[in-house]
Fold this sequence. Notes:
Keywords: Amino-acid transport, ATP-binding, Cell membrane, Membrane, Nucleotide-binding, Translocase, Transport. One of its GO terms (biological process) is amino acid transport. One of its GO terms (molecular function) is ATP hydrolysis activity. By secondary structure, the protein is an alpha/beta fold. The chain is built from 12 helices and 14 strands. Helix content is 37%, strand content 31%. Strands 6-7-8-3-9-10 form a 6-stranded mixed β-sheet, with helices on both faces. A 4-stranded antiparallel β-sheet has the order 2-1-4-5, with helices on one face. Strands 12-13-11-14 form a 4-stranded antiparallel β-sheet. Strand 7 (161-165), helix 6 and strand 8 (193-198) form a beta-alpha-beta unit. It binds adenosine-5'-triphosphate. Adenosine-5'-triphosphate binds at residues 11-12, 18, 20, 38, 40-46, 199. Adenosine-5'-triphosphate (ATP) is lined by residues 11-12, 18, 20, 38, 40-46, 199.
Amino acid sequence: xxxxxxxxxxxxxxxxxxxxxxxxxxxxxxxxxxxxxxxxxxxxxxxxxxxxxxxxxxxxxxxxxxxxxxxxxxxxxxxxxxxxxxxxxxxxxxxxxxxxxxxxxxxxxxxxxxxxxxxxxxxxxxxxxxxxxxxxxxxxxxxxxxxxxxxxxxxxxxxxxxxxxxxxxxxxxxxxxxxxxxxxxxxxxxxxxxxxxxxxxxxxxxxxxxxxxxxxxxxxxxxxxxxxxxxxxxxxxxxxxxxxxxxxxxxxxxxxxxxxxxxxxxxxxxxxxxxxxxxxxxxxxxxxxxxxxxxxxxxxxxxxxxxxxxxxxxxxxxxxxxxxxxxxxxxxxxxxxxxxxxxx
Length: 344
Ligand SMILES: Nc1ncnc2c1ncn2[C@@H]1O[C@H](COP(=O)(O)OP(=O)(O)OP(=O)(O)O)[C@@H](O)[C@H]1O
């Protein structure tokens, strides 16, 4: 659906250049919600703006729906762009136009007949829950309502892709969640491919199928959100994931520092992180296993939450007892389908 091949973007000239993206490859499937997460300056905005050529790459190819956008003429590109909707952090609405006229704007630009515009605008405003607000001006709306207008406007041209540029960063947590839910509903209803950039793991965890972590203009890690979230490999990803848990990195360090409290003679211990996914989150696998092996455990840290409505749990526990029994516990938990990482 979207293929970025060897994408490089350099800003500036001669000696004063900044490389925002460096030989980046990325592949996004039809109908998925794909998130790109990274710290400030990592290259997220440049990346998403390259997908509709709002930013022209210095090198590389951008394929959307089987067409290489970098090779299209101006008029062909304009036509292709209509299939790529975009929403923005600060909404970018026309302040002097009503809600209705903001949504009608892209349709008027391509001379759509008046009655078709009217039908489409009403359909879109109903979709985003703003049918009662069509004659208001942006200044009379809340942030969440403004973003709903942005979504309605972006979808009015029936795009196959929606690009979301930090679309919830200016909103409070509750409004963020309602906008994320709307995006999820739209993705399901229209099988719309959604690409979003964010610096918040919460956004990725809530609605994305897959995620790529961008750092210094390159992808350092990517995969299904469940995998990347539960077993982050790169230091930048680990930082994002642990920040999302209460207490973040500091708590993780405290747990490790206090991992080896006093044990009796002949008693061994191992500090492990156990991850549960799906229905296993609610099963008594841990207690059943230790009852069998005779190992004790102390819970040092724990989370139970969801990743795109799939439950998961993650516990940091210290097993105590005979070393052979601890090892048996670990292999039995693994055989039960849990992921067990020995920390020390
Ligand atoms: N128009 C520009 N001219 C010069 N340098 C730019 C321009 N736009 C971005 N950059 C630089 O390119 C790099 C990547 O910027 P980009 O805005 O893509 O990052 P980002 O991950 O979106 O950051 P943020 O979350 O702060 O928006 C940064 O070093 C930035 O300073």
